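Checklist before submission:
- one chain only
- standard amino acids only
- sequence pasted in full

Submission:
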Amino acid sequence: MNVSTTSACSWTASSNASWITITSGASGSGNGSLAYSFAANTGDSRTGTLTIAGQTYTVTQEACSYVVAPDTLKVDESGGARSVTVSTASTCTWRATSADSWITITGSASGTGNGTVTVSVARNTAKKRSGTLTVAGHDVKVEQDKD
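Returned file contents:
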């Protein structure tokens, strides 16, 4: 953002929200510029302000929403690789974690925007089992048979 004023005028820039960061040019005299960034929003819509040279600018950031598919992975006793897709806006970040030792994330445990999480399910030599893979805050059930 550019600031235009006379060379004798000093100015500052500030944010009232922790998710809005001024990354350069927080103050100056005369004409200048500043840069700012916004943290990804994983909650509800939010509003903050930037105050630059006494002028207040309202910033509203929409919430990130995620579609995770499928919501259940069915795996036979031999195990193997499976994939889960994440659909979201290009600025939204996500993470995948496994709650069970027999479900291993083998690719893309985190990302920004759309993505695919690949998991490897270990061979099952015991009884039928179920576990959980959490992707972008959504639980994906992993069900594995045993003959």
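Reviewer check: The chain is about 0% helix and 60% strand.
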